[in-house]
Amino acid sequence: MKRIGLLTSGGDAPGMNAAIRAVVRSGIYFGMEVYGIERGYAGLIEDTVVPMEMRSVSNIVQAGGTKLRTARCLEMLTVEGQKKAVDTLEKHGIEGLVVIGGDGSFRGAKVLSEKYGVPTIGIPGTIDNDLEYTDYTLGFDTAVNTCLDIINKLRDTMTSHERVSVVEVMGRHCGDIALYSGIASGAEIIVVPEIAFSMDEIVTRINRSRANGKHSNIIVVAEGVMGADDFAKQLQAFTTHSVRPTCIGHVQRGGSPSMADRMLAAQFGNKAVRLLNDGIGNRVVGIRDNKIIDMDIIEAVSMKKRFNYELYETLQMISM
Ligand code: F6P
């Protein structure tokens, strides 16, 4: 393969730039020409294609966001849009494509490979950690660390005022950001879409912790359950402790990637290009049991994300 393309799609995630760098540099290592497609699938449809050189990815390993910019592209769901995307690839002689993005982006990649025969490799780039085939997605670690930083600060003021903090985190339909940031911050309670909750039970846990000498409580609520404002209002009707809502929001999508995300980015990007260089397409890369893996893209997108109930129980046992 002599010429490959690269795009970032869907919600951005810390580490996307480091992955772009790894793809470009690995491609150049193998003697390929690498083209960046700006604004994800929208750019592929509109033909915003730029050649990437060794130096076009200098000084971005530490940068949040994505240098190629990104978009959510509904047109890619239409046959017309898909044909325009394929025309752009043909026009530029791009023989293989690397797509960095989440679930929705992988569906676009699946169509390109399955229906139009474009060898495509998916790199899981999303803070949500909602893909079953990989233990971690790129950006999840940094996003959770950002949430931890904020929850640490909330704990300070909540303890001073003996309050209950309801902190809303992202994750779409997946509770992983809430689960990991809840455990790692010492939150007493997490509320996730995967597990039904009852306000009575939450109030019981709050009261028990207060009776045990705690002066504050942190409740991490995944956005897939409800917003912090609504949750806090509902909870306040059940308790005399003062409740305050905080929505972390898009702050958790930005910032310099953590070491873990930079390592994933380097390995995912490099593996993606190695596969294309071997003439292999229609795969996604990931990490399982600490090993970089690849698997069939169709199989990967059909897998249903499973929630880690054991980790949830761990939180229940140690946070009180
Ligand atoms: O998929 C990443 C994500 O940040 C989700 O956690 C969240 O639900 C969504 O994107 C927000 O999307 P937008 O930035 O388009 O509002």
Give a short overview:
The chain has 320 residues and is α/β, with parallel strands linked by helices. Helices cover 43% and strands 18% of the residues. It has a 7-stranded mixed beta sheet, with helices on both faces. A 4-stranded parallel beta sheet has the order 7-8-6-9, with helices on both faces.
Secondary-structure map:
Layout: E1 3-8, H1 16-29, E2 33-37, H2 40-46, E3 49-52, H3 79-91, E4 96-101, H4 103-116, E5 120-124, H5 140-161, E6 164-169, H6 176-185, E7 189-191, H7 199-211, E8 217-222, H8 228-236, E9 243-247, H9 259-277, E10 283-288, E11 291-296, H10 297-302, H11 309-318
Parallel strand pairs: 1-2, 1-4, 4-5, 5-10, 6-8, 6-9, 7-8
Antiparallel strand pairs: 2-3, 10-11
Describe the structure.
- There is one protein chain.
- The mean pLDDT is 97.
- It is elongated and about 70 Å long.
- The protein is of the alpha/beta class.
- It has 2 domains: 183 residues, Rossmann fold; 111 residues, Rossmann fold, CATH 3.40.50.
- A 7-stranded mixed sheet has the order 3-2-1-4-5-10-11, sandwiched between helices.
- The chain has 11 helices and 11 strands.
The CATH architecture of the largest domain would be 3-Layer(aba) Sandwich
CATH topology of the largest domain, anyone? Rossmann fold
CATH hierarchy, class of the largest domain: Alpha Beta
Lateral arrangement of strands in the main beta sheet: 3-2-1-4-5-10-11
Bound compounds: 6-O-phosphono-beta-D-fructofuranose
Extract low-pLDDT stretches: none
Total E-strand runs? 11
Which whole number gives the mean pLDDT? 97
What is the helical fraction, as a range of percent?
40-55%
Secondary structure tally, helices: 11
Largest sheet: 7 strands, mixed
